[in-house]
Design the sequence.
């Protein structure tokens, strides 16, 4: 998360992970929410930079990027793991 300190990154990561959890209808837990939010922000920032888009700084934009990135990570995890079959 660019432009925010470590403590704010943890707080924003937890909030972003929780929002992504609600959007994607998953149940991850508090620690996983923080990890998803922080890693999601890092991953999406890297992807945006690779395609030539400079992500805006500041905590509001980084929160939006973290939520989108966390949703992306949950989606990739589901694709790799596969959906459980209905019984």
Sequence:
């Amino acid at each position: 998360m660019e432009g925010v300190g470590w403590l704010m990154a943890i707080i924003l990561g937890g909030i972003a992970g929780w929002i992504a959890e609600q959007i994607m209808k998953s149940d991850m837990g508090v620690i996983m929410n923080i990890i998803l939010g922080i890693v999601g922000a890092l991953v999406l920032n890297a992807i945006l930079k690779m395609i030539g888009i400079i992500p805006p700084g500041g905590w509001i934009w980084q929160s939006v990027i973290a939520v989108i990135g966390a949703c992306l990570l949950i989606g990739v995890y589901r694709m790799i793991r596969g959906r459980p079959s209905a019984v």
Q: What stands out?
A: The chain has one domain: 6-81.
